[in-house]
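Cont'd.
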Amino acid sequence: MEPQMNQQLADLHQMWRIRILEETILQLRLAGDVVGSVHLENGQEAVAVGACRMLRRPDAVFSTYRGHGWALARGVPPEKILAELLYRQTGVNGGRGGSAHFSAPEYGFYGENSIVGAGAPIAVGAALAARFDGSGRVALTVFGDGAMNQGGVTEAMNLAAALDLPVVFVCENNKYSELTPINDMVRNPDLSARAHALGIPAVRLDGNDPAQVAAAVGLAITTAEHGRGPTFIEAFTRRITGHYIGDAQTYRPAGELEADEKDEPLARLRHLPGFDEAERRARAEIAAATERALAAPLTDPSTAREHLYV
Amino acid sequence: MSETAKLTYGGAINAALARCLDQMPETLLFGEDVALPGGVFGVTRGLRKAYGERVFDTPISETAMLGAAVGAAMMGRRPIVEIMWADFMLVAFDQIVNQAANVRYVSEGRLSAPMTIRTQQGNAPGACAQHSQNLEALLLHVPGIRVAMPVQAQDAYDITLSAVANDDPVVVIENRTLYAGAKAEVQIGGPVAPIGGHRLRRAGDDVTVVTWGAIISSVEAAVDSTGVSADVIEAVWLNPFDTEAVLASVRRTGRLLVVHEANLTGGFGAEVVARVVESGVSLRSAPRRVGALDSRIPAAVQLAQAVLPQTSTVAAALVEITG
């Protein structure tokens, strides 16, 4: 098999893993096993998969609350993610983080964040540490188009640029800032122009194509490794689910969702031999992980105040 | 090796920071104007020259500065950030309250944020409303953040060291009216103390006065001028707060007065009174608080004096509570 084909199949499998994980979480949420606010990334899998396959061991990912797939793509076992959402002892944080705020530093996943845009300055700090700790770390922070209107993101981008820090800023532009079209919230719809204005090289690409994302992230890592500082990637994608579970999506124009479903990253690869096999493998893996996560004991309430201070 | 030096309050902090940079290679020191200019109050003077690129200036971007501290701390660095005025902390409160305070807890101890935020607060003649606030209560309401408020040069030295060595986020609130004050003998180079504890500034039998921050000079003046026999407990650490020391004193004196420069409503004085009352210790008179009136802080000196607690206010409260 061609190496390119191998890579395509590997990406396909990773995207199926995320999709099935998210579908499973949806089912658990509807069944009441998972409670509260949950944000799925169906349709946006290619960004996480393309980016994470380029990252090396010391690299650090800072995602948003739409981060289950980023964690999975970074190598966090699905059982630990599901157990976290189910508030089990075996969850990555024993249920302290939950769907929207978990971390698994042992996998280079430094965490989701439930405050829009707040991960960007923290990623800059991880990159700052790399300047002094000899790790060679590159920090990657991903956020949505809506986060571009948070001042802290611009502050973070400017600080990274001013200090030439090894940061990859990935903006998943899924067209909606939560429930509101991004283009109604800006005058200039080219979000990458803000990076250019700060002196940061920027690229706009098809975020439903993992190969394009991977190429851009690879280049960004090389740029960072050579001491040339941050890169900004605007990855166009579409979420084919609500902003959160329960979002009625009445804000979407008629026909949009149907069109997005035809162009989502998995639909694009339906022709690949191995498509069904990748799905089957992912389903088996996630089903087994779900079973184990559900069987694990809940975190003991007597530990609720542990880990507040050293 | 321990030795003494004659240092101002600002000089003591400078000496402590130099020692941290010298002995803890994972420390970084950054903030607005702290490196080449040496800080607007001169507290970090000379550190850039001595410690190179671990001491650097940042843009006027408090969110980026504090977020960068959180991220660097998560990765094992020990950042020390100067927020020039406590009032400026408010533009980046997310990074303190939502981010730094959560790192250890939410990660179930897999991550930590050993960072120190140095700032300074309070009124001084001619300061405006946005450069005068006493904001410690906002921080003390937040589990996960340690808070200290040194006033004496020795405490400034010791607490800075303890804060930087601590593995959780610590906010050290200094006071700019003290930076260039008289020099005092400061013991430097001694062992680094764990966080926490209080200082007994006056010993007496009739009332327990709990106070913190630069207003302690008014408290001491009031105690001395009234001749009231008072235990004066300076809470140099507000989180952790030495509740036991306060209770032990009040058990003996039967009276409690809390004095802070911050305004009364929701101030930490209310918490101190509540802890004493809830403890069930028997009181000979109702506990009292002295603090700023619930007001914005005016620029005009004579108006500010009308809002902020004065030595005379504290003295009157002392006489009343012991009378």
